[in-house]
Amino acid sequence: MAKTFIKYSEGTAQYFVEDLGNGVELEMVLIPKGTFIMGAPENEECSLDSERPQHEVTVPTFLMGRYQVTQAQWK
Q1: Residues 26, 20: contact at Cβ < 8 Å?
Q2: Cα separation, 61 vs 44, whole angstroms
Q3: Is the Cβ–Cβ distance between 28 and 56 less than 8 Å?
Q4: pLDDT digit string, tens, across residues 21-47
Q5: This prediction's pTM
Q6: Coil vs helix vs strand at 67
Q7: CB count, 10 Å around CB of 52?
Q8: Is 55 helix (H, G, I), strand (E, B) or coil?
Q9: Structural contact between residues 50 and 33, judged by C-beta atoms closer than 8 angstroms
Q10: What is the CA radius of gyration of the chain?
Q11: Which helix (H) or strand (E) holds 72?
Q12: How far is 57 from 35, CA to CA, in rounded Å?
């Protein structure tokens, strides 16, 4: 079975705070564009056919909430 290694690094992120009104704010973080390989290789143990074929995926830059959405933010 292939081992997966995660590379951690510290740095700074671009973000902004959206004022939703009534003292409720939403912190958003900029996720930069990038490309990665999605899916499992044929020989990966315990992988499913639905995880194949492996393919390259490119995502544009987008914003994501820094924390889970609260009920106040949802309302």
Answers
A1: yes
A2: 30
A3: no
A4: 999 999 999 999 999 999 999 999 999
A5: 0.64
A6: coil
A7: 13
A8: strand
A9: no
A10: 18
A11: helix 71-74
A12: 6
